[in-house]
User: What shape does this take?
Amino acid sequence: NKTNNENMAASLHAEKLLITTMPLMMLAMYSCMIAILWLGGKQIIIGQMLTGELISFISYIGQILMSLMMLSFIFIMLIMSRASRVRVAEVLDTVSDLTDKDSDKELSVESGDIEFKNVFFKYSKKNENYILEDINLIINKGETVGIIGSTGSAKTTLIQLIPRLYDADKGEVLVGGRNVKDYSLKALRDAVSVVLQKNTLFSGTILDNLKWGNPDASTEQIEKACKIANAHDFIMSFPDGYMTNLGQGGVNVSGGQKQRLCIARALLKNPKILIMDDSTSAVDTATDASIRNELKKNTSDTTVLIIAQRITSVYDADKIIVMNDGKIDAVGTHEELLKTNTIYSEVYYSQQKGVA
Ligand SMILES: Nc1ncnc2c1ncn2[C@@H]1O[C@H](COP(=O)(O)OP(=O)(O)OP(=O)(O)O)[C@@H](O)[C@H]1O
Ligand SMILES: [Mg+2]
Assistant: This one.
């Protein structure tokens, strides 16, 4: 931020220089011209100079003045670029505070068990309050776990600790029985697929985009993943099928189609843990249910975490976590929570009303 301000100050300074020097330079240039014309005119009148000579003299002088102006422009540009250079260097030199140099490079994730032990987390060291407070949680491999909670209740923050997009400030996060810091980032992220809330597709064909999840995937694997994600049918309905060009950021497909492509892409890694952060929000309830069914049938070893706003997206999960303001309010099955948890039952009944 400091450098950004410096950057702005420098360009402002340069612009100011430009504003004052430009008219000055123009003034100098045109006074030169006038002087030459005046003197030259006199010379011609007394017959000491030819008109042609004067004209060529003027054009030479013009060129020299022009190049002087260019030089001063270069000088101003240099001033401007100096600030940018500092900033670029700073960005390039930034070392991520997430490093895996102490990790065991040979270690790979054995199972999709997840455990949170007294985890505290905040985004900024300056913040007094923790965003996540004292999270204790055990998720066994192969389980499907729903996460429900109002916006800003730190659902996304919670799951970001699993693939180490951030590190916990206190406490530890374990995957497959080992602290996430024990694994190399590559090993960990190969085992944990996250479909982010704000997911992106790239320009290129559907196939290119899917292969980004796993460059070595075979056609069969790709089709299987797409069938699980309920994407195969709509892909085949396009005239070019898997070779359909998506355009910049996937503008050619609908929101729900995009989400399903992202799920398929995440599945291609054959992850031990699959996290879907609001990934079926734009998909209709029936398709949503069908995706969950297919997931259950085909990936029984994979731990699936589903963050959702709709109760219908999580009610059949093995357990449901209710988040409230950075804390776990309750964990249980749909039936248990409906009876015992006020937040959950309130959300449930308000959504039921919407249906009826
Ligand atoms: N990158 C960030 N930097 C600083 N604060 C953040 C950042 N991301 C989220 N927060 C804060 O953390 C809190 C929890 O945010 P989080 O994204 O985890 O909520 P959420 O439960 O996923 O909400 P939603 O349902 O809207 O996705 C919010 O108060 C938010 O302001
Ligand atoms: Mg979120």
